[in-house]
Amino acid sequence: MRDTPGTTGASLLDETIVLGIASMGEGNGHDHGHNCPMLFGGAGVLATGNRKLAFPVDGQPPLANLHVTLLKAYGVEGSFGFDGAVFGDDGNATIDGVLL
Known about the structure:
- By secondary structure, the protein is an alpha+beta fold.
- It is built from 1 helix and 4 strands; from the N terminus they run ββαββ.
- The strands form 2 sheets. A two-stranded antiparallel ribbon has the order 1-2. A two-stranded parallel sheet has the order 3-4.
Protein backbone atom coordinates (compact mmCIF):
# COMPACT_ATOMS: atom_id res chain seq x y z
CA MET A 1 0.00 0.00 0.00
CA ARG A 2 2.91 2.32 0.71
CA ASP A 3 4.09 2.09 -2.91
CA THR A 4 0.63 2.24 -4.52
CA PRO A 5 -0.52 5.72 -5.54
CA GLY A 6 -3.90 6.79 -4.19
CA THR A 7 -6.45 9.11 -5.72
CA THR A 8 -4.97 12.29 -4.19
CA GLY A 9 -1.38 11.61 -5.18
CA ALA A 10 -0.42 10.36 -1.73
CA SER A 11 0.16 6.66 -1.16
CA LEU A 12 -2.82 4.37 -0.73
CA LEU A 13 -1.55 3.71 2.81
CA ASP A 14 -1.73 7.42 3.64
CA GLU A 15 -5.28 7.61 2.26
CA THR A 16 -6.49 4.62 4.28
CA ILE A 17 -7.87 4.81 7.80
CA VAL A 18 -8.36 1.61 9.77
CA LEU A 19 -10.71 1.69 12.75
CA GLY A 20 -10.00 -1.03 15.30
CA ILE A 21 -12.44 -1.70 18.13
CA ALA A 22 -11.52 -4.51 20.49
CA SER A 23 -15.04 -5.14 21.72
CA MET A 24 -18.50 -3.68 22.04
CA GLY A 25 -18.08 -3.09 25.76
CA GLU A 26 -21.27 -4.77 26.97
CA GLY A 27 -22.07 -6.96 23.96
CA ASN A 28 -25.54 -7.98 25.10
CA GLY A 29 -26.90 -4.43 24.95
CA HIS A 30 -24.31 -3.10 22.48
CA ASP A 31 -23.10 -0.66 25.13
CA HIS A 32 -20.22 1.34 23.65
CA GLY A 33 -19.23 2.93 26.94
CA HIS A 34 -16.33 0.65 27.83
CA ASN A 35 -14.30 0.27 24.69
CA CYS A 36 -11.24 1.93 23.24
CA PRO A 37 -11.41 2.52 19.48
CA MET A 38 -8.04 2.88 17.74
CA LEU A 39 -7.33 4.59 14.43
CA PHE A 40 -4.40 3.68 12.20
CA GLY A 41 -3.09 5.25 9.00
CA GLY A 42 -4.56 8.37 7.53
CA ALA A 43 -1.35 10.44 7.28
CA GLY A 44 -2.37 13.97 6.36
CA VAL A 45 -5.93 13.33 7.56
CA LEU A 46 -5.75 12.20 11.19
CA ALA A 47 -4.38 14.39 13.97
CA THR A 48 -4.10 11.51 16.41
CA GLY A 49 -0.55 10.24 15.83
CA ASN A 50 0.94 8.67 18.97
CA ARG A 51 -1.55 10.17 21.39
CA LYS A 52 -4.94 9.48 22.88
CA LEU A 53 -8.06 11.52 23.36
CA ALA A 54 -9.63 11.20 26.78
CA PHE A 55 -13.10 12.36 27.76
CA PRO A 56 -14.72 12.70 31.18
CA VAL A 57 -17.09 9.86 31.99
CA ASP A 58 -20.10 12.17 31.88
CA GLY A 59 -18.94 13.89 28.68
CA GLN A 60 -18.07 11.03 26.35
CA PRO A 61 -19.28 11.54 22.79
CA PRO A 62 -21.27 8.64 21.36
CA LEU A 63 -19.21 6.12 19.39
CA ALA A 64 -21.36 6.96 16.36
CA ASN A 65 -19.76 10.43 16.36
CA LEU A 66 -16.43 8.76 15.59
CA HIS A 67 -18.07 7.26 12.51
CA VAL A 68 -19.43 10.71 11.60
CA THR A 69 -15.89 12.08 11.93
CA LEU A 70 -14.50 9.39 9.62
CA LEU A 71 -17.25 10.06 7.07
CA LYS A 72 -16.22 13.72 7.10
CA ALA A 73 -12.56 12.74 6.58
CA TYR A 74 -13.52 11.14 3.28
CA GLY A 75 -16.00 13.83 2.26
CA VAL A 76 -19.03 11.55 2.59
CA GLU A 77 -22.17 13.59 3.18
CA GLY A 78 -25.70 12.51 3.91
CA SER A 79 -27.73 10.87 6.63
CA PHE A 80 -27.22 7.20 7.42
CA GLY A 81 -29.28 7.21 10.61
CA PHE A 82 -32.75 7.69 11.92
CA ASP A 83 -34.57 10.96 12.56
CA GLY A 84 -31.89 13.06 10.88
CA ALA A 85 -28.90 11.52 12.64
CA VAL A 86 -25.83 11.41 10.42
CA PHE A 87 -24.86 7.91 11.56
CA GLY A 88 -26.87 5.41 13.59
CA ASP A 89 -29.30 6.61 16.21
CA ASP A 90 -27.09 9.20 17.88
CA GLY A 91 -24.24 10.16 15.55
CA ASN A 92 -24.79 13.83 14.94
CA ALA A 93 -21.42 15.60 15.24
CA THR A 94 -17.72 15.21 14.62
CA ILE A 95 -15.23 14.72 17.45
CA ASP A 96 -12.78 17.59 17.82
CA GLY A 97 -9.11 16.67 17.74
CA VAL A 98 -9.38 13.61 15.47
CA LEU A 99 -8.96 15.22 12.04
CA LEU A 100 -6.39 17.77 10.95
